[in-house]
Amino acid sequence: MEDRGLSVYILTYNNEDTIERCLKSVQWADEVVVLDHYSTDRTPEICCRYTDRFFQKEWTNYRDEYNHAVDLTSHRWVMFLDSDEEVSPELAEEIREALRSDGGRWAGYLVPRMTYYLGRWIRHGGWYPDYKLRIHDRTRGRWEGRPLDPKVRVQGPVRKLKNMVLHYSFRDLTDHMERMNRYSGLFAEGVRAEGRAFRLWKLILHPPFRFLRNYLLRGGFMDGVPGFIAAMSSAYYVFLKYAKLWELEHRRKNGP
Length: 256
Prior knowledge:
Layout: E1 6-12, H1 19-24, E2 31-36, H2 43-50, E3 53-56, H3 62-71, E4 77-80, E5 85-87, H4 89-101, E6 108-111, E7 113-117, E8 120-122, E9 132-137, E10 141-146, E11 149-154, E12 158-160, E13 165-167, H5 173-193, H6 200-217, H7 224-254
Parallel strand pairs: 1-2, 1-4, 2-3, 6-12, 7-13
Antiparallel strand pairs: 4-9, 5-13, 6-9, 7-8, 10-11
Helix pairs in contact: 5-7, 6-7
């Protein structure tokens, strides 16, 4: 009999503020696997209330950790969920129906994601629908690409679902800025490792273009002040990425 069960896999590290909501939203799944990276808060305790498939290991990189988590699952169909995300009831029902009725026609499913930011759901500015390939047949796909920024690659067609994953990404602006600082550094290190060089025109032109695209062309202005802050922070993140890439090259040439 063909396996139509679904395993949800989640990566965690010190996510006690969000992990319970995440786990509650996937109790309908056939299996929930949590791969924790030795959290020092209450994350392990909370996880073990909702699943007996709880594992811990040292962190390596995003690509390898995602693939390791997939290898821990038991079912052919797998779904990745971030620890600060929640599956809406409507999406849960849509997923169950899709796996029951599609008969293996699809290798994966794209899921729209909506983010809660500064007190409101952001519906414009490039933040929504923010489709992600979150569900796939593990026999026809793996996480591939850059170790720090991988993507799921599948062999076969994919289908868009209409209901949402809800994303509670940032506690506040301080949390947002700290993550931008961390991720921009990872981006610069990854680009340097690939041997790609800094380009001044990208530092000058990409940040303002990102703001104009997200705020005006993609309607970020319709999300009020949070939409403006989201567009500005997106532009600042692009600036940080290329500024840090320049800094790495400068250090390599001139020393610290």
